[in-house]
What we know:
The protein has helices spanning 17-30, 34-53, 112-133, 182-192, 205-216, 276-284, 292-297, 299-315, 326-329, 336-344, 351-360, 368-399, 415-419, 423-435, 437-440, 451-463; strands at 62-63, 75-83, 87-96, 101-109, 145-151, 155-159, 162-165, 197-203, 220-226, 230-237, 255-259, 408-413, 443-447.
Amino acid sequence: MPDNSSINLINIPDASPYLNTLLKQIYDEFYVSDEKVDEIIKGFHDEMRAGLDEHNVLLPMIPSYVTGRPTGKESGSYLALDLGGTNLRVCLVTLNGDSTFDMIQQKFTISQEAKDFTLFDWIAQCVDIFLEENKISYDDFTKPTPCAFTFSFPIDQTGIARGNLIMWNKGFSVPNAVGRDIVTLTQNAFTRKHVNVKIVAIINDTIGSLMASAYTNPNCYMGIIFGTGTNACYWEKVSNIKKWSTGNLDRNPDEMIVNMEWGAFDNKLQVLPFTPHDNKLNRKSQNHGLQVFEKMISGMYLGEVIRNAILWLVDRRVLFGGRSSEILNNAYSLDTAYVSVIVADDSPNLDEVRMFIESTLSIPGTTFTDRAVVKNVCKLIGGRAKRLSAAAMCAVLLWRPEVLDNPITIGVDGSMYQFYPKFAESLKVEAIRVLGKEKADNLNIILSKDGSGVGAAVVAMTVSKPAH
Length: 468
Ligand code: ADP
Ligand code: MG
């Protein structure tokens, strides 16, 4: 079982009985049993059903208006914009019609002024620079380049190219945008700057992952992000989306991608194994009480939960001789990228762990026991993240178990998936336990690299014709 063998992690040589008792307590709090996984899967199904039936419930289950499955034969050049929290990527993707693509892209760091005031004009300016530098631009008289916008802020979507901003987060505060259509605001900025581009679709990064993977693997059923945050989308039968009316579509599709916003799962904390260390993080966070599932597993938060547990041991004087450091005392000073390095350190003296504690955290003179404790706490809490991630994936697979009668693909993106030791393996192990070997063998989990760009281009293609 993934990390259930972690009971071994609490027997550390030379640890005092008191330290062992405290480690056992951490183990008990973070351990996720098979029964717990099954309970979480059931909890997911209850919330998924409620989210598909009604608006304004815990799991948003947002209809994406993406209804066409790609075949890999799509061709043409499309522009894709990917606005994350830190960068804007402008890409020109050329789909070659044989499941391959070429892409040129340019990255622009979002300035504070853009975040506070000028975002849409700034985006138009970046697109203008990109078109000009890559000699793609042409005058107002030629056909505009179709463009899909991957926009990673919450929107209330009312059409494939229409969505009103619900709220800003990640430090953005552009005035007069909340409640308004993001596509109109961006398109108006393009018009003001004579940028000859037409936004034909607005999507999020999970849909980008799904559609990018579907271009090379048309049987792709699901897109998942395990990065700064976590979220997923999948193909749902339209007849199951009871809260949605087909009013805004000119045809009646059988299926549509649903953006789950699964980071919001169990915000009422009825099934998740939430610990006091999670609670400490949650209480101090800007979005207290929200995105609690995300806070237990994603890159932005995992290191912070671990930092809380490490400080809890320091405060009981069983770690680092009871000493902390200014760095370790700072919230979010333990980046999840370090957790991956620590967990992967199999050297006899735990040299990487030593380097991290002594150099990065500035806590000198560690003992082997100190290092073993830090590594094992990382493994226990990281192991929980992997197990909960797998539970969520399995819940979505079991929601439509018939899809596993044939081979299917899941496109996944994000640094946690890419770099955390054995993350991908743990998804597969859990799938075998929950679904059985035969069905799990039909599962092809792939890294959806460049998902936002390629996936957006594929969506743009399915709703328009190329300019050239
Ligand atoms: P984004 O979510 O913005 O698209 P990423 O998928 O790269 O970006 O995720 C960034 C998050 O992943 C950050 O929270 C960072 O702490 C975490 N991260 C970066 N490198 C690693 C790593 N090697 N192992 C685990 N987490 C990582
Ligand atoms: Mg990303």
